[in-house]
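Tokenised fold entry reproduced for everyone:
>
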Amino acid sequence: MECPHLEESAKITAPSVKSENLPQQFTCSVCKTEKSPWICLCCGVVNCSRYVNGHAKKHQEEKPTHTVCLDCDSYAAFCYVCDEFVINDTKSGHLDKLRKHLQSLNSPQTQLCEKSKRSPQSDSIENKRKKMKLEKNLNPRSGLRNLGNTCFMNAVLQSLSNIEEFSCYIKRLPSLEDQVYKMRKCQYAKRTKNGEDVLLVEELRKILIALWQGTKTAISPDSLFSVIWQVVPRFRGYQQQDAHEFMRYLLDRLHTELLTLLPYPNDNSPFLGAKGKSTIVTAIFGGLLQNEVNCLICKMESRKHDPFLDLSLDIPIQYCSKALKSKESEGRCKLNDCLSSFTDIEELEESELYMCNNCKKKQRSTKKFWIRRLPNVLCLHLKRFRWNSVFRSKIETFVEFPICGLDMNKYVLNNLHETRGSFSGSNLYDLAAVIVHHGSGAGSGHYTSYAIHKGIWYHFNDSTVSVCNEETVTHCKAYILFYVRREFKLPDNISVNNKVES
């Protein structure tokens, strides 16, 4: 949105801290946290955002004319009066100078330079080791700029980019400059009802390549976001969106495009997609559920098989109550509790009576889910948002999850020979990425993600990419978890080593 308060609020060109301080070292003037620092554009004071302790908002409430601030991590301007991110911020000369100042301080070269300035020639061996460690740990990954409440998209993209087999495959796809690919793009456009010819997979390919080049501290995903606006109207605008809904749409769209663009032969592999074909999406994320419904009157059983790309898990109600009296270990919810709740036998409500083919009428019944076939990458979505009368509330319950060795054996139908096929692999999984929602509102808040690469955990917060320890990851309130199978194997016709051009 265009903010009418920007011109009168943007007065500073540098934060009210010493110039040698780096953006990562900005601390809230009240609580001293380094998390999510926001700068008041009127006076330059640095405070934490509403996603932490909200001291930037409190500062504005105490000084009503200080209406606009700047996020040090994403460089996005936000107006508290309009309650929206600002899109006309390039019209302000002061803000442009401030943003360039922060970007220069945030570059890897500047970090090393400033570090060396603060270390005299007579550095001890320990100081030299620290400097070498800083240089070694300069992240090989780029961040993603926030285009105005697009943290939901950034968190999903960074997580998927760390699923190695998925990321490598997409990066090796032919570009639109390839003649065969161009021809198939035209065929795809003719098949769509409105003649749309934009390709999400092409923009995703460019983003993943740029992320792993590591030549910039942050890149802008504006081309990808523009395509998303064109193909799905509900994501248009700059309001906060749900990361899980975006991820599901992204994967579904990629699967549809790849089926049309690439020569996937029909096969009998367990990774079947639409029309008996599998793409990299279904080969990596695709699993199969078995839904069993039992009539409580005649005991007749009905079975149905449903493919899935992720599992949405309820947090058991006993862990959602604020009145928990039990101590830490007794009252702490674990991921296995959510999985057990998902697969437990449940009696259907009166409004969901089952039409029994044997009784020829709706009857009371029970249902149970089994996982008939596990995917290579198990994506688990914790249902933290629930409807209460007319609004959605967030469940803040901490769910304990394992970093290594998630055992899925007890949730799988292991008495069927199909689940022990050549592609089944182990039922043990290790964590690859986590998406976290910060804040209390379903339509507000902030998304960040954690992901592991070559044994090192990274925290992705829009433009900022920082190294973190495993303990930090285990203490986050997960929203979406990505677990990778220890014995990862793709079908023979889908491999990152194969050429995908015809």
Summary: The chain is about 30% helix and 25% strand. The two ends are 45 Å apart (CA to CA). The CA atoms of residues 119 and 297 lie 80 Å apart. Residues 143-261 form a domain with the Cathepsin B; Chain A fold (CATH 3.90.70.10).
